[in-house]
């Protein structure tokens, strides 16, 4: 999920509304996926009740927390550099405490405390409610750790503080964990088994955002299509649910329809979909409601059926293509994006060509592409040799990236001359005289500000484009306004 987060947000420390009575200062940074950014909003909410306001100034912090990512080795190295930086500051300000949150905390457990001695506190993704106790421990000079994974924690009862928000778009998490066990992926180990959040608490969170004039929500989960509420507990225990629980269960299509129906003037997005769990009913719901954006992030990882099997993805190349055909039939102007991994163990040149030809077939609007990084403890690491030489992985990655850029440019150009609906999010990075927002298909659109303001829904006539951005002129408010 990390891809949709702009690079500039990675690591950014976040600010929230300040509580006057709070006297202590929290510096919190997030790396990795949207779920981490969303979790940091939960953590900030918990700590706001413990006397902490956030600060963007590391030097003045009483508590420094870093929400970490383990998805690739590089992500972990980035966090390690930050830990070095915090420790340098700590030498000047010895009262400062440092805590590691999220996936690296879960993966490395006590290693940070016992062997490396570079942090005071280690807190896994399901243990944030224990932060008040853990803070007490470190306040008394003891190291503190809680990396217990939960069966039912969804933080549904915590109202996140919107950190560094544009006041227009927000993430709302609907599931935690993942049961898919893709052989390359560390997430099932760091974030635990899949569980869904109660629809009522999701609806309440969106009602609150709506009341505060937010205009877009992104429903968030490692695998949103797998959402299933039947009264609590793990997804894998659904088979044990009673007849009554089954009769009243809510799946993703139903949840999506509920949200879209309740808030027709809000845009609804969701991320991430998994091809093996994506049901046709979701596509019909997207087609039915104008306020659900026509954009699906549909990671595939490889275009080779043999590699997909080795990755434990539960579909073939052909089944994926059939799903894409179905998407395009039901939602003709839908855009799609991919995640791709190059150089998975045993990947041959022929497998790689299959990836390129699949990309040509699907014509993804965007893509998030990575060289395979072996993660300790995963099935691929235990059973397969990381046998594709680094140079080959990187060359294949470059080919995949180049092809995606070519396809993205074609896809972006298809909007030329059209009127697209844009939700204004912020000033354009390149020009303060222009607004920046996205159309339904998730392509960035910039246009002269005129009399419009952040949060407006505007129709924009596209007159020009670069490979990834549409440029145009506002021609009036859209029906969503
Ligand atoms: N279902 C999740 C996937 C999280 S990981 C979601 O919500 O998006 C995000 C992407 O990182 C994956 O789709 C995959 O393309 C990539 N990735 C995961 N493990 C990897 C590894 N070991 N090496 C390289 N890329 C990896
Ligand atoms: Fe990872 Fe596969 Fe789940 S990529 S997050 S195990 S769907």
From TrEMBL:
PROSITE patterns xref list: MTTASE_N, MTTASE_RADICAL, RADICAL_SAM, TRAM
UniProt keyword NAD present: no
Co-factor binding comment: Binds 2 [4Fe-4S] clusters. One cluster is coordinated with 3 cysteines and an exchangeable S-adenosyl-L-methionine.
UniProt catalytic activity: N(6)-dimethylallyladenosine(37) in tRNA + (sulfur carrier)-SH + AH2 + 2 S-adenosyl-L-methionine = 2-methylsulfanyl-N(6)-dimethylallyladenosine(37) in tRNA + (sulfur carrier)-H + 5'-deoxyadenosine + L-methionine + A + S-adenosyl-L-homocysteine + 2 H(+)
Domain MTTase N-terminal, first and last residues per copy: 24-140
Listed InterPro entries: Elp3/MiaA/NifB-like_rSAM (IPR006638), Methylthiotransferase (IPR005839), Methylthiotransferase_CS (IPR020612), Methylthiotransferase_N (IPR013848), Methylthiotransferase_N_sf (IPR038135), MiaB_methiolase (IPR006463), rSAM (IPR007197), rSAM_horseshoe (IPR023404)
The protein's required cofactors: [4Fe-4S] cluster
Binding-site residues for [4Fe-4S] cluster 1, renumbered to this chain: 33, 69, 103
Domain TRAM: 413-476
Annotated Radical SAM core domain residues: 164-410
GO cellular component terms, A-Z: cytosol
List of residues binding [4Fe-4S] cluster 2: 178, 182, 185
Location in the cell: Cytoplasm
Record flagged with keyword Metal-binding: yes
Sorted UniProt keywords: 4Fe-4S, Cytoplasm, Iron, Iron-sulfur, Metal-binding, S-adenosyl-L-methionine, Transferase, tRNA processing
UniProt EC number: 2.8.4.3
Any one GO MF annotation of this record: 4 iron, 4 sulfur cluster binding
Role this protein plays: Catalyzes the methylthiolation of N6-(dimethylallyl)adenosine (i(6)A), leading to the formation of 2-methylthio-N6-(dimethylallyl)adenosine (ms(2)i(6)A) at position 37 in tRNAs that read codons beginning with uridine.
Family, per entry: Belongs to the methylthiotransferase family. MiaB subfamily.
Assembly behavior: Monomer.
Protein name, entry field: tRNA-2-methylthio-N(6)-dimethylallyladenosine synthase
Organism the protein comes from: Flavobacterium zepuense
Lineage, highest ranks first: Bacteria, Pseudomonadati, Bacteroidota, Flavobacteriia, Flavobacteriales
Gene designation per UniProt: miaB
